Amino acid sequence: MDFTGKKVLVVGLARSGMAAIKVLKTLGAVITLSESKKKEDIKEADRLISMGVEITDQSMSVFQRDWDLVVKNPGVPYRTPEMAELASRNIPVITEIELAYIVSKPQHYIAITGTNGKTTTTSLVYAILNKAFPGKAHLCGNIGIPLCEIVMENNLMNEGGHYIALEVSNFQLVNIDKFRPQVATIINLTPDHVDFMGGLDNYYKSKTEVYRNMQGSDTFILNTDDEVLAEYTARYPVKCEINSFSLDSTDKDSYIKDGYMFIKGEKVLPLSAIRLVGKHNLQNVIIAVSAAKAVGIDNETIIDAVSSFSGVEHRIEFVREINGIKYYNDSKGTNTDATITAVKSFDKGVILLVGGFEKGLPMDELKKHLAPVKKVIGFGFCGPRLVKELVGDEGIVVGNLEEAIAEANKIAVNGDTVLLSPTTSSFDQYSCFEERGEHFKKIVNSL
Question: How far apart are CA 303 and CA 427, in angstroms?
Fold first, then answer.
């Protein structure tokens, strides 16, 4: 597509919107930014104006204008009257990942999606790629770095053959068109983002978009242990090569046996090389190693990278031990399945801190896995509901995270674990899960 003179509306700024604008400016597009903030509250406003970008609000009249293309920030809801107005006139709406893909030379994209484990898996994929292809490996996507930013910084509009570990959320997958990864996976499917997507079926279906355009020798890494994933891959068939894996059986392409990880029948990685704890991390590792083998990386490089990888921040992250009490930051546990995974990493004595923005997720499944939990403490907007549904009157409800930690410290004894795994997002009191996790660590480190 020739962008010269094309009228492009960018909906929502943030980091991804700014990155998209830089790409569009380079390509000669006529750019308008539609932003919910007032112009005087946009810190990049002067720079945008100097680039020739028109800044408007998000009123319907903006969406009723004629546009050649709309680039939507993934955080902007897609089921709105404004989006319906664009659709009624067949105006294409894409995200910045699609934009980056269509303007770049061919690259090696490894796309990781799923409900939980995306950040750990994508980070490990990048660690392996960076060992194998230093200078030509990149980490981006939902992990916080826009793909458009990587395109601009590494001249990918003119240079191909780079290796891109791309974490992709369902928000980013909703508006793809041509995006086609060389390797992709859906780690797992569990309830999340029901508020944004308007139902579980919409959410699960959106994840299958990651492989919609894959074909031929592309590789889809299939988790055969996930029953919901099996249902959706049957409903929306994969049209490329499949590398199936299981942690529970050895009759799939990739599996665990005799202390080793086998990928397509080849003994690749000794389990002793893995520093991450928990069965869920074995799943993350087998996916990352499968992806590495799919792009031709040798076993020695894989073992070297995996043995050096110690995990990611805010995901069952050990913070500190005080008087025999351990504190773990799992602020990225923003749904019930993530919290179940975190709780199952411990045997007993867990003081579980839950709460935050109300996403409407039921607590029934988490309630079945509370055996290691000694006490549940709820905080924030939905803290009272979570405590009521999980443990009723046996729980404790407070207003904020600082008060939750204070209550936990009154209860905790030598051998206990204070675990922040909120089960929901942070937007009632924080801008993001990272800010919540940093606040938790600051409080704990000041004890």
Answer: 39
